[in-house]
Design goal:
Layout: E1 7-10, E2 13-15, E3 18-20, E4 25-26, E5 29-30, E6 35-37, E7 40-43, E8 47-50, H1 58-66, E9 76-78, H2 84-87, H3 90-96, E10 101-104, H4 106-115, E11 125-128, E12 134-136, E13 141-146, E14 156-160, E15 165-169, H5 189-201, H6 205-217, E16 224-227, H7 237-248, E17 255-260, H8 266-280, E18 284-289, H9 295-304, E19 307-315, E20 318-319, H10 321-333, E21 339-346, H11 352-363, E22 366-367, E23 372-375, H12 380-400
Parallel strand pairs: 8-9, 9-10, 10-11, 15-16, 17-18, 17-19, 19-21, 21-22, 21-23
Antiparallel strand pairs: 1-2, 2-7, 3-6, 4-5, 7-8, 12-13, 13-14, 14-15, 19-20
This protein binds MU-OXO-diiron (FEO).
Length: 403
């Protein structure tokens, strides 16, 4: 297949996005599998482009569009979201098709106007739309759905009524680079969708619940969901909507997460003993060294674990920098209903546990058990204590799992 070949996802509807194979860091969010920016072209009496791609990939998107239609013939550009991975090629399109109408939410128009002052946005033919507004493409109709705070104030989605395709922008996305385009062509897509949710949408879970209800009120029951990142849902449409509801309600599994860092192995030994204790309670446990594991993946483990043990050595009277960075990351994502246990080691003054206590306060986690610290290294008695604690935490994880 030609590298620039667009992909027909339904009659007259094409994926014209790009795959970012080497994306490993998406503004600080680790993307070990790469990513994609999905744009879609609809050919009807009117030609509509839904979203664009990161500016560095504008030419690649244009090549795909040109395989279908002369881009100067585009009548409508739909900007579902201002963030630059979707909007930064709009100016390229508007230069080529200056007569095109540019549809955005009210906050979308404001955001685009503030962001693209140097790109001639004062000449763009903005059309502000709100939930329920419709435009006809000829045989087809596009309906707009504001998706405020999923995940920016301007976020919007577009529903192609006759084909029942929901262009959901960031919602329902996954960060995966693949030559496949549909969910049923790739294994474990739901796992990637969960990682994406945990790192991007988790703080907006109350809005997700309202949004799922709004879809029902609007009688939007898509047969295909075409997000702006990753694979298009055609087999797992209802399942991914259900999973979003579940994640948003704060579900967790009977599972315990141990996250830690270690300098000379003492905190690590404590972590290993805690793991043993959890195992002896018959509970699943995950151990994550924060310098050796992707934080985005670990965040999904946080989402799924009702109880989290966090361990840090003391360095310069403080917690280790990876622990403080990760706890700041977690606090921003606001997972609900989590219990915590802190542990660590020190040589003289200590300070790690105190620092973690302060940081975890802002995450609003609930104390599971009093913290434990050892001086220099854990001896047999300390190890036994860690195993006992692990057992109790495991029991707690069973009690606190939420389906
Ligand atoms: Fe994919 Fe919020 O940008």
């Amino acid at each position: 297949m030609d590298d620039n070949e667009p992909l027909k996802i339904a009659e007259g509807i094409y994926w014209v996005g790009v795959v970012d194979w080497n994306l490993r860091d998406f503004h600080g969010y680790e993307t070990p599998k790469g990513g994609s920016y999905n744009a879609y072209l609809i050919i009807d009496e009117k030609i509509a482009l839904i979203d664009t791609v990161k500016a560095t990939f504008s030419e690649e998107m244009l090549k795909r569009i040109k395989k279908i239609v002369d881009p100067s013939k585009i009548d409508y550009v739909i900007s579902n979201h201002v963030e630059m991975d979707h909007s930064s090629s709009i100016s390229t399109i508007m230069d080529i098709a200056p007569g095109a109408k540019l549809f955005a939410s009210s906050k979308g128009q404001t955001g685009l106007s503030e962001h693209y002052k140097e790109d001639g946005c004062e000449n763009w033919n903005f059309q502000v739309v709100k939930t329920g507004d419709e435009i006809s493409l000829g045989k087809r109709t596009l309906m707009f759905i504001e998706a405020t705070m999923l995940h920016w104030p301007d976020s919007m989605q577009t529903y192609l009524k006759e084909d029942k395709i929901l262009f959901s922008n960031d919602a329902f996305g996954q960060h995966i680079a693949t030559s496949k385009r549909f969910d049923d062509e790739v294994e474990d897509v739901m796992e990637d969708a969960a990682i994406y949710y945990a790192n991007i949408l988790l703080p907006f879970s109350p809005q997700v619940l309202k949004y799922v209800e709004k879809l029902k009120e609007l009688d939007v029951s898509p047969e295909m969901i075409a997000p702006a990142h990753g694979l298009i849902w055609r087999k797992g449409v209802s399942r991914v909507i259900e999973e979003y509801g579940k994640w948003a309600r704060g579900y967790s599994l009977p599972k315990l997460l141990v996250i830690y860092d270690s300098m000379w192995g003492s905190t690590e030994k404590m972590a290993m003993e805690i793991v043993e204790g959890v195992r002896s309670a018959g509970v699943e446990v995950r151990l994550r060294h924060l310098r050796k594991n992707d934080w985005s993946m670990t965040m999904k483990e946080v989402m799924e674990s009702p109880v989290i043990a966090i361990g840090s050595p003391t360095m310069n009277n403080r917690m280790f920098y990876t622990i403080s960075g990760f706890l700041t990351y977690v606090a921003g994502l606001r997972p609900k209903g989590k219990k915590y246990f802190l542990f660590g080691s020190y040589g003289w003054g200590g300070g790690a546990v105190k620092g973690m206590e302060k940081e975890i306060e802002s995450a609003k986690f609930e104390l599971a058990m009093e913290s434990m610290q050892v001086k220099f290294r854990p001896y047999e008695e300390d190890k036994r204590a860690c195993r006992d604690i692990g057992y109790k935490l495991g029991e707690m994880a069973k009690e606190n799992a939420k389906s």
